[in-house]
Specification:
With 342 residues, the chain is an all-alpha fold. The chain contains 14 helices and two strands; from the N terminus they run H-H-H-E-E-H-H-H-H-H-H-H-H-H-H-H. The protein is globular.
Length: 342
Amino acid sequence: MEAASIPRGGRSVLERSPLRRLPDAALKYSLTALAALILALIVYFFIRLVGEARPAFSKFGVLGFTFDNGWNVSAEQFGALPLVVGTLITSALALVIGVPVALATSIYATEFCPLRLRAPLTVLVELLAAVPSVVYGLWGIFFLAPKLQPAEQWVADRLSFIPFIGGGVVTIPNYFMTGLVLAIMILPIVSAISREVMATVPSDHKEAALGLGATRWEMIRMAVLPYCRSGIVGGAMLGLGRALGETIAVTILIGNAPQLGSHLFGQGYSLAAVIANEFGEAQGLHRSALFAAGLVLFVLTLLVNGVARGLVLRAARGGGALAAGADAGAGGQRVAETVAGA
């Protein structure tokens, strides 16, 4: 310890001259300035968006603009509720479809995949992140949507008794196709984070569960997943943020119907799509309304990040390392007792 704390020259760090301590202080203040710069940039974006959106908010009100169901450019009536709903529906679909697949991929890569195939599988999954979003959009609208339209219509007909999910005629584009492609786009993010977190699970937790009679799946359920709960939740929330902010693919796949969709397989609109479609020709109040839509998306993303942070902290408190180890041991003991009783 003493040898490690005393640098060359026989003097401790505190005994160095101020000039020799200058690089440490410079690094500290440089990193602090960069962190403060990021916060200042976020505040600048917010202030600028508020300034540009003020005419729209002055005419329609903040709540009126956000929750009014009417986006009519020719009549200069702007309500963002259909856009907010479209954004939330497609993002929720991406989570529902993508997170289980990403989690299953991570479990297979860390627990079941042979070592010689683990690296190629990981690379192939991560390569999905390298595909441009416009390619995803064009692939979805020209190839995937026509192939899945008969299956979508079958589901809509059979589930017509369920509000919003069933009934109606399937259109291309639609909400479901947008959510499906977004699920593919968030798959590498959620999978990579989940896989890295699962790789940090102590081997003695797994071995304790297996040694007490747990099966492979019971070991994963009682030792791996509780330990990784906070990381999995964090990865899912990062994927949600990616889905909320996606623009090009959503613009191609969701359509341009600025009204609340009547069913899951109908056209809609989203906040990012309306900005991408209409900003080039927008003027006056229309331009201000698009800035207001961007501000709503910005605030929605911040709220999602805040909720995600709270969920991660809650999951970490409920599934820390000690709790995971205790659950694994207790679960393995229950399995062993069951086997002994049988």
